[in-house]
Amino acid sequence: MTHGALPSRPGYPCPMSARRSRPRTGPPTGSVPADSGTASFDAVPGDPHAYVLTLNDVPASPYHAADPRVLGFEYLRWIAHLVSVAYADHRTLRAVHIGGAACALPRHIEAMRPGSRQTVVEIDAALAAWVRDHLDLPRSPALAIRTADGAQEIHRFRPGTIDLMVRDAFAFDTTPSALTTADWFDAACAALAPHGVYVSNVADGQDRRALRTEVDALRSRFAHVVALVEPTQFRRRRRGNIVVAAAHRALDADRLARALRKDGASVRTGEGLLSHLGPSGGRR
Whole-angstrom distance between the N-terminal and C-terminal Cα of the chain? Predict the structure, then answer.
């Protein structure tokens, strides 16, 4: 399950894939079956094609029925910019998403990079079935949805084969502890290709404990770690989404910063990131 805020949306001028599983008609709204609590799928005022999936009273995923390139949550747009910069050659991607909800990011990637092969791992079987039945998703194998626990399923991916790993799973508004263990990070690192990029959506509080845990774990396994954040979140020490990315290769922080500027976000690396983590924030 994913979660985020609900800001405005931009468009993306790039061809979309025609390989869809359902026609682009308005999906049913209202209560949605979910094994993990309560869920609803509701229209967003101001755009007849925009919806949001809410899980346990937390906005979990946007959905745009007319254009999968449109991402209604700002943190998802940050990830989209990151992917664009990290894979500037526009190659197709082998991507794994831990946490699916309405599959907004997988739909976006398929629209921007037709021919990509993606797997979504979603622990909530009832929710996954509803999403596959009612939303306009790419067909398998372009997009496969596995109902499984991400902490266990991560071990099933062949080592060194994944271009993009996105962890965007939540229990209410907290990342499940099983997705923050040494075993999780070791397995995710092993699954990535040498050029691969690991991305996590961290819902961080004022104490920065979740962010500190994430950054420390990634810096012990990857040569390069960056955080994408709305600048006032650090200055005012408020709760919010922070996107953390890690890779064995350098990510173009300057180019990424320029791309993020249009969404009001910035990049933190090195000491500029560690200075926000407190005294136990990492080794290097």
Answer: 32
Of 283 and 29, which is predicted with more confidence? 29
| pLDDT band (50, 70, 90) for residue 10 | very low
CA-to-CA distance for 124 and 48, rounded, in angstroms?
28
- Cβ neighbours around 260 below 10 Å, total: 22
On whether the CB atoms of residues 42 and 51 are closer than 8 A, the answer is yes
Question: How is residue 119 written in tokens?
Answer: 């797997």
19-23, 100-104, 208-212 — most confident range: 100-104
User: In this structure, what DSSP letter does residue 171 have?
Assistant: B
C-beta pairs of 178-182 under 8 Å, 24+ apart in sequence: 178/149, 178/150, 178/151, 179/98, 179/150, 179/151, 180/213, 180/214, 180/217, 181/151, 182/217
The pair of three-digit structure tokens given for residue 284, joined into one six-digit string? 């290097």
Give residue 34's Cα distance to chain centre. 20
User: What gap in Å lies between CA 166 and CA 210, rounded to an integer?
Assistant: 17
Sequence-separated (6 or more) residues with CB below 8 Å from residue 45: none
Helix (H, G, I), strand (E, B), or coil: what is residue 174? strand
φ, ψ at 206 (rounded to 5°): -65, -30
Q: What is the mean pLDDT of residues 226-253?
A: 86
Q: Which residues pair with 253 in a beta bridge?
A: none
